[in-house]
Amino acid sequence: MSVMRVLTLLAGGAASAYYVRKKLEGLEPQQPIANDDTVILYQFEYSPFCAKVRQILDFKQIPYQVVELTPILHSNYTLRLSGQNKVPYIRHKGQVIADSSAIALYLEEAFPEPATLPAERSEREQVLLIEDWLDESLQPAIGKLAYLSLFLNPQSVIDDPNVTTGIAALDKHKDKIVPLMLSRSVRKNKLTAADLPKLEARVNDVLGRLEAQLRGKEYFVGNQMTLADLTLLGHLNNADRLKLFDYNGPHAWLMDWRQRRLAEMKQIETINV
Ligand SMILES: N[C@@H](CCC(=O)N[C@@H](CS)C(=O)NCC(=O)O)C(=O)O
């Protein structure tokens, strides 16, 4: 099937999407050559939930291989492999685990050191509570604003060489694919340009709540990095690339916090090389 046909079908409705899925078996990603002990991460590079899992893997110094999937087109393949239709999911020792929070718990069990969850019960629950809030409140607020802003001005994503569809033949058509995918997200969330001020206000609310928890502190809980901090790093992963929101002025502290945590992650990598 030609790339242009794929694009035309993707632009269509549910029936076309179904047809595309049925037709695209040939474009499935190659399975990586790795033994069963290596963690395989199935992901989209830009997904904040996938970035969260990469942060955990890096923090724990777990070797892993990435399989880059293509948004929308991956769903048949993903359903078959993992029994659900979202990324991230991982494969390790013959098991497939989906959902970033379930993956975090699995990795904590399989690779206990260094720990991302405190041993003390109330601290541990606090970390999990914050993780949940970051995934379920902060991320949707930032995500909706990002989708709409980028849909209204997609050129920065089209021009970013790091943005890939996961399929080389389709990457040449990013100028068509990126707006198409963004328009699907905007439609799914029933957003229009008129919603921008409301979405910006919501992001400011959420960042205000975050500030009350984290400003002036190095870590959410205790005196070392936990799953809560790694989750926030994941959700801020696109901050530079997509210029998600204005970090000058009131939110500059958050970018400073992020820089300090990224420097700490770099140090962990260097020490363990
Ligand atoms: N609760 C899930 C959320 C995962 C999620 O929403 N993934 C999005 C990408 S960010 C997805 O796969 N959407 C389906 C698609 O785009 O095909 C987690 O923590 O992993």
Task: List the keywords.
273 residues, alpha+beta, Glutaredoxin, Glutathione S-transferase Yfyf (Class Pi), Chain A, domain 2, 4-stranded mixed beta sheet, 58% helix, 7% strand, binds glutathione
How many domains in all? 2
Output the helix-strand order: HHEHEHEEHHHHHHHHH
Helix content: 55-70%
In terms of structural class, how would the helical and strand content be classed? Answer: alpha+beta
Poorly predicted sequence stretches spanning 5 or more consecutive residues = none
Name of the level-1 CATH class of the largest domain: Mainly Alpha
Sketch the major β-sheet: 4 strands, mixed
The backbone outline, from C-alpha atoms, is globular
Cα(first) to Cα(last) distance is: 45 Å
DSSP strand tally: 4
Ligand names: glutathione
Measured by DSSP, the beta-strand proportion falls in 5-15%
Give the spatial strand order of the biggest sheet. 2-1-3-4
CATH architecture of the largest domain: Up-down Bundle
Mean pLDDT: 88
Q: Can you count the helices?
A: 13
CATH topology of the largest domain, what is it called?
Answer: Glutathione S-transferase Yfyf (Class Pi), Chain A, domain 2
Taking all Cα atoms into account, the compactness measure Rg is: 19 Å
What can you see in these coordinates?
With 273 residues, this protein is of the alpha+beta class. It has 2 domains: 3-110, Glutaredoxin, CATH 3.40.30; 121-272, Glutathione S-transferase Yfyf (Class Pi), Chain A, domain 2 (Up-down Bundle). The chain is built from 13 helices and 4 strands. The chain has a 4-stranded mixed β-sheet with strand order 2-1-3-4, covered by helices on one side. Helix 1 runs antiparallel to helix 2. The longest helix is centred in the middle third of the chain and has 32 residues, at 121-152. The termini are far apart. The model has no long low-confidence stretch (mean pLDDT 88). It binds glutathione. Glutathione is lined by residues 47, 49, 71-72, 75, 86-88, 99-101, 135. Glutathione (GSH) binds next to helix 5.
